[in-house]
Write a structure and sequence with these properties.
The chain folds into 2 domains: about 60 residues, Orthogonal Bundle (Arc Repressor Mutant, subunit A), CATH 1.10.10.10; about 60 residues, Orthogonal Bundle (Diphtheria Toxin Repressor, domain 2). A two-stranded antiparallel sheet has the order 1-2. Strand 1 and strand 2 form a beta hairpin. The protein is built from 7 helices and 2 strands; from the N terminus they run H-H-H-E-E-H-H-H-H. The mean pLDDT is about 90. The protein is mostly helical.
Length: about 140
């Protein structure tokens, strides 16, 4: 399978979010969410359709294929975990965390992501007496 560009991964992630939030994704909604023009969306959807990640017919709701959904869910999960790590553990403002996570989600290796995800889970489930995140943020991140 060809590797997708960051931009095309963002389209898949956006389509998934719109499906979950609004029940479907249309060119106008995708353009608005990604802050791009409709012809750019149409071009991206054609590429994703050629790669069998979406079912795209002009003026209809865009549908993810099973493979497209799997990839979109992977991108979204990376985004969510990285954002949570930044916000919950590093006390980074959510808007900054979201923006940074959007960049990192496309380049982080599967191995590193899995380790980060496991570490986040470990920290979030650990006894607060052993790991004091508030102390870390107040004393070490001035």
């Amino acid at each position: 399978m060809d590797e997708l560009t960051k931009s095309l991964e963002d389209y898949l992630e956006t389509i998934l979010i719109l499906e979950n939030k609004e029940g479907g994704a249309r060119v106008t909604s995708i353009a608005k969410r990604l802050n791009v023009k409709k012809p750019a969306v149409t071009s991206a959807l054609r590429m994703l359709s050629d790669k069998k990640f979406v079912i795209y017919t002009p003026y209809k709701v865009v549908k993810l294929t099973d493979e497209g959904r799997k990839l979109a869910e992977s991108v979204l999960k990376r985004h969510q975990v990285i954002t949570k790590f930044f916000v919950e553990l590093l006390n980074i403002p959510e808007n900054v965390a979201e923006n940074d996570a959007c960049k990192i989600e496309h380049v982080i290796s599967e191995y590193t992501f899995n380790r980060l995800s496991c570490f986040l889970k470990f920290i979030m489930e650990s006894d607060v007496k052993c790991i004091n995140i508030d102390k870390f943020n107040k004393e070490y991140c001035k």
